[in-house]
Amino acid sequence: MPPTPLDDRSRTILMETVSNYIATAEPVGSRTISHNLQQRLSPATVRNVMADLEEMGHLHQPHTSAGRVPTDQGYRFFVNELLQIQIQNPAPLTGFPHDLKNRSLDEILESACSFLSTCSHQAGLVMVPSFWDLALKNIQFIHLTSGKLLAVFESQMGVLQNKIIETGEAMSQDHLNSVANYLNREFGGRSLKTIRQELLHRKKNEKERYNELMKQASQLWSEMFPDEQNAELLIDGLINLLDQPEFSENVEKMKRLMKTVEEKAKLVKLLDQCMIEDGLTILIGEENLEQEMEGFSLIAQNYRMGGEKLGTLAVFGPKRMDYQKMIGIVNSTATNVSEFLSKQ
């Protein structure tokens, strides 16, 4: 069943409760909320509303005599409200390094990861594109000796890769030029992954004449790029999480997190999920894929090159984070990275 809609008073009290808990990391009492609200409501009235919010699943009372803390559902309501504000009035962010012109992809993404962790005081995550996601700008084959050649690949982002290939047969430089021209003409601007799939498709397609030139192009391509590579994950500022009371006082929870981060594959899986989405992705507590991450939230945004999604960057930290600030940091960083990459 969908959650029960909140009236204005309940909404205001819930938003204030979550904001106060984020700021203090302490359960929030009705007297505190009554004092902070602009409209005059007695502690008793606030307490009754908080009890209703607890019954709806938005708040939780750790102890009978304690105040309330947000549940995952309460955080989700809070974040959804913030997103509406952010869409109408996006917060600008300054401070992103602007000396990255003509820097390599790795340098730009490493700077972004460091910037995310420094500004957020949480962990910064950046998924570096797999080499197979790079687009072909130019490929050349250079004759070395009989049965041996040098393949030189250049991506549209300026990434270079060289490899000596043993063909087992003699090929003249003119013939190698013809093979390279075929690949550049047919597949320029397309990703390595797409090119590999298309070459296999053409090879198997009985309707297309499988000529000698295409056969050799496919063989040389397979020798140049034999296996797909997984995306690399950059992590910066994980130690920042130790400053948060949720984890500094819970060693076991921190150990489980460290184990998850060391494996990296689970975080890559999480960011892969975000990569599928358009726009900002926010995963709160139990919405994360892994049980070890239930105490955490992740705010992610894709970065692009020329309008095409290239990777994902994110802030990762406790559920009790300053979501409004984090949303601004992640959005602004993704925008800046996309602009730098598109100008390369």
From TrEMBL:
Organism: Nitrospina watsonii
Organismal lineage: Bacteria, Pseudomonadati, Nitrospinota/Tectimicrobiota group, Nitrospinota, Nitrospinia
Classification via Pfam families: HrcA
InterPro entries named among the record's database cross-references: GAF-like_dom_sf, HrcA, HrcA_C, WH-like_DNA-bd_sf, WH_DNA-bd_sf, WHTH_transcript_rep_HrcA_IDD
Keyword line: Repressor, Stress response, Transcription, Transcription regulation
Domain spans labelled Heat-inducible transcription repressor HrcA C-terminal: 106-327
NCBIfam families associated with the record: hrcA
Family: Belongs to the HrcA family.
Protein's job: Negative regulator of class I heat shock genes (grpE-dnaK-dnaJ and groELS operons). Prevents heat-shock induction of these operons.
Protein name in UniProt: Heat-inducible transcription repressor HrcA
Keyword Chloroplast: no
Gene expressing this chain: hrcA
